[in-house]
Amino acid sequence: MNYELTGSLDIEMSESQVDLDAIEFPLVGGGSVHSFAEYFSLPQPSMAYRLRRIGILILITWVPLLLLAIVSGHAFTKTIVEIPLLHDPALFGRYLFVLPLLELSETLIAISLPVQARHFLQSDLVTDRERPRFDAAVQEVLKFRSSNTSEIVIGILAFILAICARIYVFDATSSTWEIHQTARTLAGWWYALVSLPVLFFFLLNWLWIFLLWGLFLFRISRLDLQLTATHPDHAGGLGFLGWGLASFSTVLMAIAAMFSSAFFYEIIHNHETLDTLKYHVMAFVVIAIVIIHAPLLVFFGRLSRCRFAGLLDFSTLVLRYDRKFEEKWIERKTGETDDSLLGSADIQSLADIASAYEHVNDMLLIPFDMKGFAVLVFAALFPFLPLVATVVPVQEILKKLTEMVI
């Protein structure tokens, strides 16, 4: 079946069966922007389109802050405020790295999620009997994604969070480009009313997509999946979901960069040190990795039952084979000579069946993939590497690396 978002935001499913590769799952590309493009028959987003959007986002969020700060004299020197705009690393990180990376993340995840959704059918994990329920799960998730109401709620929530964060929580006694003599500057108002809500909208939108993906996996976990305990991925055939999480690494890296730039601000202006913040970094990495893997927990029960059933089946098979083996080679009831033991395939078969049992016994209870896990850990840690420069000068690091190479 082919799933498409129409101009009216309704999801229509054709009755004819088509090539599984043609199935669409526009969880990332859905929403009002996608529907607007379809309505006016605009081309699908390309890299040039993404770069243009990044340029527009920077013009809306970053450039006005810089211009307003320059006009008011809060951009360069510390003669008027203690922390000028160009001395704020958190601002650079959020709007010149985090926001563009959140936009570019769509390119990778928009490819990964449909591929994973199609693989449930291509690998026959979902049988023809369960296909209607699978179709209903896809339809439900895409209906939530295509809803204008959800985007309106996200926009309102982003604006409220920005206002609360900068106007009611932010310390009004601080002397920065945002606050001067307890009064909010023009740049500070633009940041609170425009720039920060835009950033929060992107973050909340990705959270919404992640939650919908989790809902889809939950619906799929309720199906009668054809899992196999002996599958080489040690996850009954669901191992691709563990590797698929690596596609969220760019979003994770963007969020980590937000924290990293904030920590850099604390080190420069509030006299914190990397040694005191290292536990914050470790806590972030652990919490982020756990949250990203949380949707896979929905398969815990099904994989547990698959493993248990596999152990019972192979235990019975091993027991039957062991009895026959002992009758033939230990009790010697069939009268074979010692020479016949040499080169016998029975010995290798005994080792193979024992190895298969151990393979089932080592089966994972969630679709975990070590390589995907490593990619996510790297994505979470990489933005914090520049903080090392606050402890060891960059020149010294480069000098040491050069000496090691030479």
Write the layout of secondary structure elements.
Elements: E1 3-5, E2 11-13, H1 32-39, H2 47-61, H3 63-72, H4 89-122, H5 131-145, H6 148-169, E3 179-180, E4 183-184, H7 186-221, H8 239-244, H9 249-269, H10 274-293, H11 300-330, H12 345-361, H13 370-381, H14 394-405
Antiparallel strand pairs: 1-2, 3-4
| Largest sheet entry | 2 strands, antiparallel
Secondary-structure element order, as H and E?
A: EEHHHHHHEEHHHHHHHH
Rg calculated over all Cα atoms: 28 Å
- Quick one: overall form? elongated
Q: How far do the termini sit from each other? A: 59 Å
Number of strands: 4
The largest sheet has its strands arranged as 1-2
Oligomeric state of the chains in view: single chain
Instruction: Assess the beta-strand content as a share of residues.
Output: under 5%
Number of helices: 14
Secondary structure class reads mainly alpha
Low-confidence stretches: 1-19, 36-42
Helix coverage percent: 55-70%
Brief descriptors of the model:
4 strands, mainly alpha, 406 residues, elongated, two-stranded antiparallel sheet, single chain, 2 domains, disordered N terminus
Give a quick precis of the structure.
The chain has helices spanning 32-39, 47-61, 63-72, 89-122, 131-145, 148-169, 186-221, 239-244, 249-269, 274-293, 300-330, 345-361, 370-381, 394-405; strands at 3-5, 11-13, 179-180, 183-184. The protein has 406 residues and is mainly α. The protein has a two-stranded antiparallel sheet. It has a two-stranded antiparallel sheet with strand order 3-4.
